[in-house]
């Protein structure tokens, strides 16, 4: 029996391992061998039985992408997706490919995104750009979401409320699958905090959870079998979650389950039903943001637009019969030529309008809102006519660039790539940074949008084989080496409580006390008040020995000079601070999660700070200890296939 070879291109080692963990839950693994095959790539050979048949797979992890102008690998897997129509600067957490050594190609099978964060507000559509941009190439896409998640009090970490997304967001994946005829879905998995005894979850149907469906879908996709059965199951559960969110959404101005069912059955569309409901567009804008003519413009929008699926999303629909009056009033507020006004009116389509505060007070872009127009395109159609008004502070230089050379701006900024590539008309009403003036600008943009959306391959995508030998090594490899070393130890020797490489999973931190795992979720990033810093790794040595167990709190960096002064003190303080709160949940070693009700005690003297980095060959370890205030140093030196780790 010969190996079938697959690759998992992941943002980091955590994303690669997550996919393997999903797959392995449905495999009867007979034998497994995991090892480095270079300083960066990891090979996992498995013999397994699935549905009474035996198979051999070789999985090769490629953690860390070519991005931020970094050419880590000899070939960028995302260049292939871009060539097939993925025009946004958004990349999924992981991509699975199948290797054809004879043709020297990798066949892209699917892309996967994970989310353990709170799905509320604009965070809920933050990743829609990745889904939209990937699916339009023809590549299947799974967005795996932990449910349930709570909003926490920032001071006490007590649960305030279950937060759920607007039901239009999960429905947009269903609608997009129908439109594009490419599988893309939100798949929900049970989080550690899910508590069936919570009255708010009383009628929740746990069969909606899709862990097994995800595993079966991926396994059958990789085996080359038909996956329709699993796609239908995941999409059906996706729809059930839409219904659940609809029932539990406060307020009467939202589509109800029967409304979503009508749309799903093809009896109507999101836009037509929104016009039928006639709910006044209700986007709220803070008083401090009301600069220029924005206040009057919002009144005009509310006069002619209906909310799409509800009142309070930041986009609405202006029915074609209202367009003339709307445009006339808009022209009275902004310097829009009669020619541009006529272009808006020349078609017989409804006009979708989106109001977005694109920038924060210092002028940096509001990153989650990069997903807003992709979300709207998935919910309706990328061919819909869209007018976007952007407010919020902006530099005068950027306004001039958008006026004179929008293509260059789009290529330089992921935010503008979205808002120039997916809208037909752009309106700016912005206060200028460090100036007293306000700027307005209108641009007709349909030609640029057509250029961006013209290519949509919808075919099997092949990439040149990516060599497992990296062009350069980075912090990703420090994290992979630490993870591989310590997770290879027996469970009674080491427990991995946190692995948080760049772009990784900082959704939870666990420790073992008295044969029970205690976990804090929704971790604070950093706290200046307590002089604490969230570690990149937390490893517990001898976890079953309460008296002698040692917790390693590790900071990983490319090089030793990247370490912050006194970071060792902050690494230990973070864990001490976190342990002053009741853990979020707990479970026996082989049991199920339950909500924790009491604090646990950790011995501060058993918390050890560690600095990990790539050894330059001329390190002054005494000086590194002194400046970083770390108890231990892990200095990594590359070998031909892996790393040597020197402890100091």
Write the layout of secondary structure elements.
Blueprint: E1 4-10, H1 13-24, E2 28-36, E3 42-50, E4 53-63, H2 77-83, E5 94-100, E6 105-115, H3 128-135, E7 141-147, E8 150-152, E9 159-162, H4 168-180, E10 184-190, H5 211-223, H6 228-247, H7 257-264, H8 270-277, H9 294-304, E11 306-307, E12 315-318, H10 323-333, H11 338-345, E13 351-357, H12 372-379, E14 385-391, H13 396-404, H14 406-412, H15 414-421, E15 425-431, E16 438-444, H16 446-453, E17 462-464, H17 475-487, E18 494-499, E19 508-513, E20 516-521, E21 526-527, E22 532-533, E23 537-541, E24 550-556, H18 567-578, E25 585-588, E26 594-595, E27 607-614, H19 621-628, E28 632-639, E29 642-647
Parallel strand pairs: 1-4, 6-7, 7-10, 13-14, 14-15, 24-27, 27-28
Antiparallel strand pairs: 1-5, 2-3, 3-4, 5-6, 6-17, 8-9, 11-12, 12-13, 15-16, 18-23, 19-20, 20-25, 21-22, 23-24, 25-26, 28-29
Helix content: 25-40%
Gyration radius from CA atoms, angstroms: 26 Å
> Biggest sheet, open or closed, and with what strands and sense?
9 strands, mixed
What's the helix count? 19
Mean pLDDT score, rounded? 94
| Dominant shape | globular
Number of strands: 29
């Amino acid at each position: 029996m010969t190996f079938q070879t697959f690759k998992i291109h992941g943002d980091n080692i955590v994303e690669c391992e997550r996919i393997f963990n999903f797959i392995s839950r449905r495999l009867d693994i007979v034998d497994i061998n995991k090892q480095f095959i270079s300083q960066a790539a990891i090979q996992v050979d498995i013999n397994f039985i699935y549905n009474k048949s035996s198979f051999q797979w070789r999985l090769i992890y490629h953690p860390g992408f070519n991005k931020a102008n970094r050419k880590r690998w000899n070939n960028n897997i995302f260049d292939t997706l871009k060539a097939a129509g993925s025009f946004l600067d958004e990349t999924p957490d992981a991509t699975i490919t199948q290797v054809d050594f004879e043709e020297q190609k990798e066949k892209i099978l699917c892309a996967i995104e994970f989310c353990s964060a709170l799905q509320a507000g604009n965070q809920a559509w933050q990743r829609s750009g990745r889904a939209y941009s990937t699916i339009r190439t023809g590549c299947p896409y799974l967005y795996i979401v932990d449910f349930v998640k709570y909003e926490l009090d920032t001071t006490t970490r007590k649960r305030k409320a279950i937060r759920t997304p607007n039901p239009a967001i999960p429905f947009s994946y269903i609608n997009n699958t129908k439109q594009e005829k490419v599988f893309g879905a939100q798949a929900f998995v049970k989080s550690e905090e899910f508590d069936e005894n919570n009255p708010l979850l009383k009628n929740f149907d746990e069969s909606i959870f899709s862990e097994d469906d995800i595993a079966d879908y991926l396994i059958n996709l990789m085996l080359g079998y038909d996956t329709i059965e699993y796609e239908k199951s995941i999409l059906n559960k996706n729809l059930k979650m839409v219904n659940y969110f609809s029932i539990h959404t406060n307020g009467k101005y939202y589509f109800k389950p029967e409304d979503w069912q009508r749309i799903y059955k093809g009896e109507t569309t999101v836009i037509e039903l929104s016009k039928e409901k006639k709910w006044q567009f209700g986007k709220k804008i803070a008083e401090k943001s009301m600069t220029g003519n924005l206040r009057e413009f919002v009144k005009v929008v509310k006069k002619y637009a209906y909310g799409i699926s509800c009142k309070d999303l930041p986009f609405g629909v202006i029915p074609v019969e209202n367009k003339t009056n709307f445009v006339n009033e808009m022209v009275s507020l902004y310097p829009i030529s009669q020619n541009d006004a006529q272009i808006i009116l020349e078609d017989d389509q409804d006009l979708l309008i989106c109001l977005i505060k694109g920038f924060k007070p210092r002028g940096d872009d509001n990153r989650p809102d990069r997903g807003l127009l992709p979300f709207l395109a998935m919910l309706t159609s990328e061919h819909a006519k869209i007018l976007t008004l952007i407010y919020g502070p902006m530099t005068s230089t950027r306004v001039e660039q958008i006026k004179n050379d929008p293509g260059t701006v789009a290529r330089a900024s992921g935010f503008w790539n979205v808002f120039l590539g997916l809208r037909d008309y752009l309106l700016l009403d912005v206060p200028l940074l460090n100036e007293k003036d306000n700027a307005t600008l209108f641009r007709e943009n349909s030609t640029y949008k057509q250029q961006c959306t013209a290519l949509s391959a919808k075919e099997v995508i092949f990439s040149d084989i990516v060599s497992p030998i990296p062009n350069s090594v980075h912090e990703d490899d420090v994290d992979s080496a630490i993870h591989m070393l310590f997770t290879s130890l027996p469970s009674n020797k080491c427990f991995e409580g946190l692995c948080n490489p760049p772009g990784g999973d900082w959704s939870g931190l666990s420790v073992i006390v008295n044969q029970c795992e205690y976990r804090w979720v929704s971790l604070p990033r950093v706290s200046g008040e307590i002089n604490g810093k969230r570690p990149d790794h937390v490893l517990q040595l001898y976890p079953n020995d309460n008296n002698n167990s040692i917790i390693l709190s590790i900071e990983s960096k490319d090089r030793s000079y990247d370490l912050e002064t006194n970071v060792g003190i902050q690494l230990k303080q973070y864990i001490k601070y976190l342990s002053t709160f009741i853990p979020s949940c707990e479970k026996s070693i082989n049991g199920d999660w339950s909500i924790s009700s009491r604090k646990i005690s950790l011995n501060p003297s058993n918390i050890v700070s560690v600095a990990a980095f790539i050894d330059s060959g001329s390190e002054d370890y005494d000086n590194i200890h002194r400046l970083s205030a770390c108890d231990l140093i892990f200095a990594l030196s590359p070998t031909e296939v892996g790393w040597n780790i020197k402890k100091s």
